[in-house]
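I'll show a sample.
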Amino acid sequence: MNRNPNTILIALILLLALACFADVASACPTCKDGMAGDPAYSSMVNGYFWSIIFMMSMPFLVFSGVAAYFYYEVRRARSLQAAAAATSADTSSNPEIALQS
Protein backbone atom coordinates (compact mmCIF):
# COMPACT_ATOMS: atom_id res chain seq x y z
CA MET A 1 0.00 0.00 0.00
CA ASN A 2 1.18 3.45 -0.84
CA ARG A 3 0.20 5.82 1.94
CA ASN A 4 0.74 9.49 2.01
CA PRO A 5 3.39 10.34 4.63
CA ASN A 6 1.34 13.37 5.71
CA THR A 7 -1.63 11.13 6.58
CA ILE A 8 0.55 8.91 8.77
CA LEU A 9 2.08 11.97 10.44
CA ILE A 10 -1.36 13.45 11.18
CA ALA A 11 -2.55 10.12 12.61
CA LEU A 12 0.50 9.92 14.87
CA ILE A 13 0.01 13.50 16.09
CA LEU A 14 -3.64 12.79 16.89
CA LEU A 15 -2.68 9.60 18.73
CA LEU A 16 -0.07 11.49 20.73
CA ALA A 17 -2.60 14.22 21.60
CA LEU A 18 -5.07 11.57 22.73
CA ALA A 19 -2.43 9.99 24.95
CA CYS A 20 -1.60 13.38 26.49
CA PHE A 21 -5.22 14.09 27.42
CA ALA A 22 -5.88 10.63 28.86
CA ASP A 23 -5.23 11.85 32.42
CA VAL A 24 -7.75 14.65 32.09
CA ALA A 25 -10.42 12.30 30.73
CA SER A 26 -9.91 9.68 33.43
CA ALA A 27 -10.25 12.28 36.21
CA CYS A 28 -13.83 13.31 35.32
CA PRO A 29 -15.73 10.28 36.71
CA THR A 30 -14.07 10.73 40.10
CA CYS A 31 -15.77 14.09 40.56
CA LYS A 32 -18.74 12.35 42.16
CA ASP A 33 -16.48 10.91 44.85
CA GLY A 34 -15.17 14.37 45.69
CA MET A 35 -18.70 15.78 45.89
CA ALA A 36 -20.14 12.93 47.98
CA GLY A 37 -19.51 14.62 51.32
CA ASP A 38 -20.66 18.09 50.26
CA PRO A 39 -24.40 18.67 50.86
CA ALA A 40 -24.52 21.30 48.10
CA TYR A 41 -23.83 18.61 45.51
CA SER A 42 -26.11 15.90 46.93
CA SER A 43 -28.60 16.17 44.06
CA MET A 44 -25.78 15.86 41.51
CA VAL A 45 -24.46 12.73 43.20
CA ASN A 46 -28.01 11.36 43.20
CA GLY A 47 -28.17 12.13 39.47
CA TYR A 48 -24.96 10.17 38.88
CA PHE A 49 -26.50 7.23 40.73
CA TRP A 50 -29.70 7.19 38.68
CA SER A 51 -27.90 7.68 35.36
CA ILE A 52 -25.68 4.68 36.09
CA ILE A 53 -28.71 2.57 37.07
CA PHE A 54 -30.53 3.66 33.89
CA MET A 55 -27.57 2.87 31.61
CA MET A 56 -27.02 -0.53 33.23
CA SER A 57 -30.68 -1.52 32.85
CA MET A 58 -31.01 -0.59 29.17
CA PRO A 59 -29.40 -3.73 27.65
CA PHE A 60 -31.66 -5.95 29.75
CA LEU A 61 -34.79 -3.98 28.86
CA VAL A 62 -34.00 -3.95 25.15
CA PHE A 63 -33.24 -7.66 25.11
CA SER A 64 -36.40 -8.45 27.09
CA GLY A 65 -38.50 -6.37 24.69
CA VAL A 66 -37.10 -8.11 21.62
CA ALA A 67 -37.49 -11.54 23.24
CA ALA A 68 -41.12 -10.80 24.18
CA TYR A 69 -41.86 -9.64 20.62
CA PHE A 70 -40.51 -12.87 19.13
CA TYR A 71 -42.31 -14.96 21.77
CA TYR A 72 -45.68 -13.45 20.89
CA GLU A 73 -44.99 -13.71 17.15
CA VAL A 74 -44.24 -17.44 17.51
CA ARG A 75 -47.40 -17.95 19.59
CA ARG A 76 -49.48 -16.11 16.99
CA ALA A 77 -47.99 -18.14 14.15
CA ARG A 78 -48.66 -21.39 16.00
CA SER A 79 -52.26 -20.43 16.70
CA LEU A 80 -52.80 -19.51 13.03
CA GLN A 81 -51.21 -22.79 12.00
CA ALA A 82 -53.44 -24.73 14.41
CA ALA A 83 -56.52 -22.92 13.11
CA ALA A 84 -55.56 -23.74 9.51
CA ALA A 85 -54.97 -27.38 10.43
CA ALA A 86 -58.35 -27.56 12.18
CA THR A 87 -60.09 -26.02 9.16
CA SER A 88 -58.43 -28.46 6.77
CA ALA A 89 -59.32 -31.37 9.07
CA ASP A 90 -62.99 -30.27 9.09
CA THR A 91 -63.19 -30.06 5.31
CA SER A 92 -61.47 -33.42 4.76
CA SER A 93 -63.75 -35.24 7.23
CA ASN A 94 -66.97 -33.74 5.78
CA PRO A 95 -66.96 -33.69 1.96
CA GLU A 96 -70.16 -31.58 1.82
CA ILE A 97 -68.35 -28.65 3.43
CA ALA A 98 -65.57 -28.96 0.87
CA LEU A 99 -68.10 -28.85 -1.96
CA GLN A 100 -69.91 -25.80 -0.56
CA SER A 101 -66.77 -23.71 -0.26
About this structure: The chain has a mean pLDDT of 79.
